[in-house]
Amino acid sequence: MNDPRPSDPRAAARAVDALHRGWPVTLHDDGATLTLFAVETGDAAALATLDPAGTAPLLISAGRAATLRLANQRAAATPDGPVLIERTDWLDFPAATAIADPQFDLRTPLKGPFRAVEGAHPALMAQALRLARIAGVLPAFFLLPAPAEDGAILTPADIDAHEDADRLTIAVRARLPVDGAEDAEIVAFRSPEASEHVALLIGEPNGNPPLVRLHSECLTGDVLGSLKCDCGPQLRAAIAEIKKAGWGVLLYLRQEGRAIGLINKLRAYALQDQGYDTVDANTRLGFAVDARDFRIAARMLTLLGQKRIRLLTNNPAKVAVLRDNGIDVIERVAHKLPPNPHNERYLATKRDRTGHQL
Ligand SMILES: Nc1nc2c(ncn2[C@@H]2O[C@H](COP(=O)(O)OP(=O)(O)OP(=O)(O)O)[C@@H](O)[C@H]2O)c(=O)[nH]1
Ligand SMILES: [Zn+2]
């Protein structure tokens, strides 16, 4: 039986808020129920109240399980798929934190042995991990024995609604002279997950398809001038390239850290300080290597009336998703910037492991 209640993005927003505050969240679908208690934001006292018998198992992702050498017990298909760890006496709150958070991998000799057990609701467990990514918390939950009285409640359909690109709308347009394009106009969008994506329209339409750049938010690179990545130079060069082409659109997508959020991206950076590359760092954290949803960009271009474009990117996945979502990408234009000593390895990893044409 499907839930008769229409899907509601607000239920997902309430769940995200609850996860930030360390409150339980109940996910349900087709009669199955999981009550989640996030390891990152919860605490031992609350867990003792919510799970007095101490039986709640621990849900983590397959990428994290592989790091903990649990991968062979229950292989999930993807690094962000679910693995359930049996609850034992020693698996208390601090032990769960050491399991969840890779920053303790070198410092905390992990206890054990762990045993991965079959979860009754793998599809719903996968939705729980998806919710962790959306909330930007570590993908690790105790599965509580019963829903909490005042906990947030939601369904996978509510999460879909929360991430539904078709619900994006244009909120406002204004002139915004920027360095390199004094004639620019900014267009801001409202989205169900409350991200304020923006488009910068540069130049005047000249009969040719616009040159378009999809830029994913990178606070460290865009604002602080980080040399670890190529985002800052790519952002500024994109504006210059579009201006040079006559006209076009820069989409600034609020997909920080390839959509794992700033805090988790910085966790990945801490792992990179230990020698892992950008791909392995995401996997060790328990996230997909790239969790971005470029359908948002297709929707923004459609709302702007630009369905035939040239795309400035080295990432074939952007071209593919736009094409699958009604945008005619007539040309891919390379967007390479000179490396610096700090981002050479990052760029090599993009070329060798994530399919970027660099
Ligand atoms: N998780 C994670 N995100 C990163 C890391 N370095 C940069 N990012 C994010 O990656 C996004 C930029 O993606 P890139 O993979 O560099 O480039 P791209 O957008 O796929 O491809 P191009 O269009 O060719 O530039 C931004 O959201 C950055 O915040 C990292 O080490 N880990
Ligand atoms: Zn960056």
From TrEMBL:
GO biological process per UniProt: riboflavin biosynthetic process
This protein's name: GTP cyclohydrolase-2
GO cellular component labels: cytosol
Role: Catalyzes the conversion of GTP to 2,5-diamino-6-ribosylamino-4(3H)-pyrimidinone 5'-phosphate (DARP), formate and pyrophosphate.
Xref: InterPro entries: GTP_cyclohydro_II, RibA, RibA-like_sf
Pfam families referenced in this protein's UniProt entry, alphabetically: GTP_cyclohydro2
Entry GO MF terms: GTP binding; GTP cyclohydrolase II activity; zinc ion binding
Reactions that this protein is recorded to catalyse: GTP + 4 H2O = 2,5-diamino-6-hydroxy-4-(5-phosphoribosylamino)-pyrimidine + formate + 2 phosphate + 3 H(+)
UniProt-annotated binding residues for Zn(2+): 218, 229, 231
Coiled coil: none
Keyword annotations from UniProtKB, A to Z: GTP-binding, Hydrolase, Metal-binding, Nucleotide-binding, Riboflavin biosynthesis, Zinc
Catalytic residues (positions): 290 (proton acceptor), 292 (nucleophile)
RNA-binding keyword on record: no
Cofactor(s) demanded: Zn(2+)
Pathway the protein acts in: Cofactor biosynthesis; riboflavin biosynthesis; 5-amino-6-(D-ribitylamino)uracil from GTP: step 1/4
Domain GTP cyclohydrolase II: 173-333
UniProt binding sites for GTP: 213-217, 234, 256-258, 278, 313, 318
Listed EC numbers: 3.5.4.25
Cofactor stoichiometry and binding remark: Binds 1 zinc ion per subunit.
CDD domains in UniProt: GTP_cyclohydro2
Membership in a protein family: Belongs to the GTP cyclohydrolase II family.
